[in-house]
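User: Show me sequence and structure for the first protein, then do the same for the second.

Assistant: Starting with the first protein.
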Amino acid sequence: MDLQNKDVQEYIGLLWKWWWLLLLGVLLGAGIGYTTGRSVLPVYEAKTTLIIGNFVLNSGNPNTGELATSQQLAQSYAEIISREPILRATANALGANLDWMSLRDKVSGRLVPNTQLFEIRVVDGDPLMAKNIANEIAQQLILQSQANPNQEQQAQYQFVQTELTELQNAITLLREQIKDQENALDLESTAEGVRKQQTEIDFLRARLSSLQNSYASLLAFSQEGQINNLTVIEPATIPTTSINTNNSLRRMIQGGVIGLALAFGLAFLIELFDNTIKTVDDVKKFLDLPVLTAVGHSDALSSNKHYVVVKPGAFSPMAEAYRILRTNLEFSNTELSLDTLLVTSPLAGEGKSLTAINLAIVMAQANKRVILIDADLRRPILHKVFKIPNRFGLSSLLGGEGPALETILAQRKFRNLRVLPSGPMPPNPTELLGSVQMEGFLAQFRALADVVIIDSPPLLALTDSRVLATKVDATILVIEAGRTQNRICQRAKGMLSQIGVEPIGVVLNKFKPKRTVDEYHYYYYYSPYTASGHTKNGREKANRKKRSPSKL
């Protein structure tokens, strides 16, 4: 049951994520359908109905064989009316420079189910022409049908009809005579009289049987060939309404449905082939590592001055996420002390520096002495964020140049937090970071602080992070949600595994809680603050203030 609920939540999350694409698909499909529907010219349909055979009108009681024969004939007629002889004769009869081949796609025929009625249907842009074509095709079908008798056959049928009438009268008279004789037999008292009456009755019955046989033969002859007879019982009339009157609305609805289906299919394919790490479950599935915290996305992090999100009195979801990271590290189930922490990421731009900066700040706010080191000697950023000089730094210490360590660390921007910038870029950063001097300085850092946090380069770009990972107590892997592919994250973890380092956990950066339903989702929506640190009501008031006219 939990698995089913999870699947439902994933589908709901998919719809919520791609609602704009679904809406766009509906609007585009409906617009295209409406446009194509309006561009289609009206088409009218006329219908002529014929009856196959005369027995329905004459006897009113056709048998099963006659109905089956009519259905077979109807199939033949449906083919005949779209052939050249009928169409050419129709075009010649109507004139008006009609091309018989142009009529082929306009004509169709069908048998009305369980009847002997045959319909000829014609569609055309001109309602009058549709009516004329339908009636003329019916006439040409009758004229060219073999069911039309010649003069000799007509004379024979007329003679048979006369004979049938006379036989019917004779049969009726004989039945009355037989009845009279039977009544007289009942009144006869002598044996001779009974014998004579019985002989007369037998003679009359024999005569009746002979007449009935003759009547049946003549009746069968009269009906022979009539099954194939065609008669128009309902000629076509001028249609007043086109069959595509509601074409625009119908096509708009159809286009909207098709657009929705295509948009949903596209969204599903994108999600199917999207192999990036997006959720906490993805981290556990592909990396088998715990998620230390999930930091939400904020557009305000585009400049260096917004790197510091954990400010005094700030209770935004992002600030709380770094406090959760601090708590998880403090209560981490490890036998080793976490005096030195390395923060890195598989690729550049995933938020490792952001994580290192704010983790250092929340550690300092917890009354811990913290040293934050910029070990990214190629693309340093900490000196820009904290607005401190970068003339001397880590590279200066490792190269034996510049002032002493205490002098460089004397630059404080936050209480309990000291920042060591990278210093000038050396020609051999990897060798310096892996040197014996680096190990010696790390020992000094441990003596001067409770926690040492190192911001290092990306794992896949350089070997600097792998060199440093062997010298610290724990390594934190920062992954940008929805950007970094799982195979790249697995490769980064594998590089660390090759040197015997297992990351203590993952920080999922730029996490979007709308994509899934978990503990982070509930926290982000429970908090009254936005990702930038402002309350939702406060931001709405500020927006209204901007929109309101200024007072003069």
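Switching to the second protein now.
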Amino acid sequence: MDLFIVITLALLAVMGIIVGVSNDAVNFLNSAFGSKVAKKNVILAVAGIGVMVGVMTSSGMMDVARSGVFYPAMFSYQEIMILFLGMMLSNIILLDIYNSLGLPTSTTVSLVFGLLGSAMALALYNIWSGTTTASLGEFINSGNALAIVSGILLSVVLAFFSGHLLMYISRIIFSFRYSKIFSRYGALWCGITVAGIIYFTVFKGLKSSGLIPAEITEYVNENTSISLLILWTGSSVLLWILQRFNVNILRVSILAGTFSLALAFAGNDLVNFIGVPYAGYDSYMIAQAAGEAPTSMAALSNPTQANFWIMCAAGLVMVVTLFTSKKAMRVIETERKLSSQSEEAPTNSEATVASRGIVRGARALNDAIQAITPKRVISWIDSRFEQLPAEERGDVNYDLIRATVNLTAAAILISIGTQLKLPLSTTYVVFMVSMGTSLADRAWGRESAVYRITGVTTVIMGWFVTAVGGFIIALAVTLALVYGGQVAIIGVTLLCVGLIIKSNVSGKKEEEKVEESAVAKIGDALKQSPEEALITYTEHVCASMEKVTMIYDRTIVAVFKENRKVLRDMVREAEDFYHSTRQQKYELLPLLRNLQDSDVNTGHYYVQVVDYISETSKALLHITRPCYKHVDNNHTGLSKEQVYDLKRINDRVEEIFGEINNMLRTRSFDSMERVLNMRDEMFDLIDEVMQNQLRRLRDTGGSSSANMLFFNILTETKTMVLHSRNIMKSLEHFVH
């Protein structure tokens, strides 16, 4: 069974690396990709080298998994193996639950609190069974655990404010039109960046790796100020020389920052993926060397001597995943959009009371500061933050100045954490630095600030949820393994394997669903010709109308049959459809800005059609949700008369939508008059049905909830058909 556990831990380590790199490691690529500093393969190669160097120097962080949150001397060999297995298995369950719910998570937080939960479970088991007289505090390294947790939380705050402050100062100095002033002072500014990266990454992050001679490290530590001054001077001179040869030193700084952040990530986060399996392997080797199962695993408290070949293998898996993971590239695209300079950056976050209050408070504070600041100063500061026009900015998400600040601040913070042996959350550090710099760059305008704040608070709340969830699940899983023995070990392992397979299968299905947005397709088509844009847009509207038809028909039929499962699925599809149409409104604005003069006359029709589709989807959602709620609450079903009337309405809706879809497919609007007549006839039918229902109310009454649902379906159906006709009317102008 011991060998089975070791093999299981090894397999989980490989899978952890693949999943971790796909979700977390992309953070150090965002700035390079967002600013398009170099070709994709060049960026990945630089990051890959940084990862390989980082994994060779991360052995100090491995101690966190071995003795960071518990005292291994208090556990026997069998217990420590159960502890490590319970933590890894619970981590898979945790990630599967959070992915299913769409909640943010962190591998660092799940590691720390998973180990804490597993150690707590075994400690409680020993206390409850009477095998020890020790107290709970003697098992848990509470002081170190508190320091780790505090470090993670503090890093989130420091990352945001350090990113904001550095970006604000940098933008004041250089503005968005930085070419002229950067040619004079850019070497000095980039010199600070490179010197900081070298100091914290090389002399702090790599000081225990053996790569830096001890004499040099000792001198730097004793003469920090002089060392930093020498580094700054040397870096600035070298960059100034490169600048004289027309080398873009900002690109050099960003690639250097990408390398250092990849190194810092590998050095800090590798423990999240292989720290526990490696500790399990060491425990197994200790038991094999002793010839028996030790009653105390105090040997795990000794500093780790990482196996060179194991670390190399882990690094290679990380690099290969970096180059081959499609999921990683999609995550990069998502984070680039979130921190984009565009104020209309699309977001799925719904505004909350807290985010609205923060925005109002920030505006009030800003007004108070401006009231006491001389207008000349305000005017000068505003001029430094005057953004470039879209045509000058190009298709980058942000410029090279912000990319450099992002990398510098994040690399330094993570390197400090690695030096202090604190497993910081790389995801949160990079994310919060990015949010801080985008705020300083005034990307958080009044149009998007409330949504961005909601996103930030969601990340912070996700940290707490991950911590609590990771602790509880690890506690429960480890107790199950202890009390269930071999049967529980095999059973929970098979369960987790099933979850992994299910996650990979569903992940592939999700990949198949991911398509380029409709507005992006139209933008590409417009570059070819207005006719091509018309074809593309008509296809999009046709697909939307067919989706409306399908959801409406299945919802009405499911209400008749009181099919809760189908109604739940229709609500989910209607919600996804509504959110996608709402997203198109934000995506449409940049497209309209880039319209050629010949396309401006038809631009407002794009706006109309998008708006009408959005209103149609909203009416559809107002039908599906009440229908599902009615059946889910087990209310009385619709009467026979109501079912008969709704069938008549549904038939007319299908007939109208069928005619509309046919016109869209053929791009011929000769039947527009026929659709208008059909619409009027259906409206007359709805009025007739409403009158029939009012008479039934007077004569027999019936279920109040069923009656309200019936009237709601009629009203929203009328709204839906009305907007559908408006879509056709607006779309007709593209043809004529």
